[in-house]
Amino acid sequence: MEGLYRVLSALVVVGLLTNKALATQHVVGGSQGWDESSDYSKWASGQTFEVGDQLVFKYTPGLHSVVELPNESAYKNCDVGSALNSMNSGNNVVKLSKAGTRYFACGTIGHCDQGMKLKVSTVSADASSSPGSTPPSSSSSSSPTSTSAASASFPFASMLPMASLLAISMLSMF
């Protein structure tokens, strides 16, 4: 019985670690980070944002900030006064915890109007890999990329937790 508990505990740990590793961290703006010179619409169009992924905003504190806006109207009008959340540490991580659209902008006066804003459409992990779904169009080779412990485009990524569990189960037989 003790061996069964050990195997089950190991399976739970491996499952949790594998799911965590599959989430993608998208560094907003790529190597340039969160600044006025990036084209965030172009950058976002080259990404697939899935539930569980994270946005990482890297910028100079005091010069920039990140505000989350409540809706598309506030986004289009750069209404940073209606922010749902404001961040200013220079290294902010936002977890994409559910499917839907979220809006971000720089809270520094004038920066949003200069294009320092981001619209992110998050899909469920199942939706992005289901048959018939259309991946986002690829952007030019000079566009920033995201970092990931396991690429979201890995075709068998959803099978990793099960494969890990099977491997541990087989090892426990010996």
From TrEMBL:
<feature type="domain" description="Phytocyanin">
    <location>
        <begin position="24"/>
        <end position="124"/>
    </location>
</feature>
<dbReference type="GO" id="GO:0046872">
    <property type="term" value="F:metal ion binding"/>
</dbReference>
<dbReference type="InterPro" id="IPR003245">
    <property type="entry name" value="Phytocyanin_dom"/>
</dbReference>
<feature type="signal peptide">
    <location>
        <begin position="1"/>
        <end position="23"/>
    </location>
</feature>
<dbReference type="InterPro" id="IPR039391">
    <property type="entry name" value="Phytocyanin-like"/>
</dbReference>
<protein>
    <submittedName>
        <fullName>Uclacyanin 1</fullName>
    </submittedName>
</protein>
<dbReference type="InterPro" id="IPR008972">
    <property type="entry name" value="Cupredoxin"/>
</dbReference>
<dbReference type="Pfam" id="PF02298">
    <property type="entry name" value="Cu_bind_like"/>
</dbReference>
<keyword id="KW-0325">Glycoprotein</keyword>
<keyword id="KW-0186">Copper</keyword>
<dbReference type="GO" id="GO:0009055">
    <property type="term" value="F:electron transfer activity"/>
</dbReference>
<feature type="region of interest" description="Disordered">
    <location>
        <begin position="123"/>
        <end position="146"/>
    </location>
</feature>
<keyword id="KW-0479">Metal-binding</keyword>
<keyword id="KW-0732">Signal</keyword>
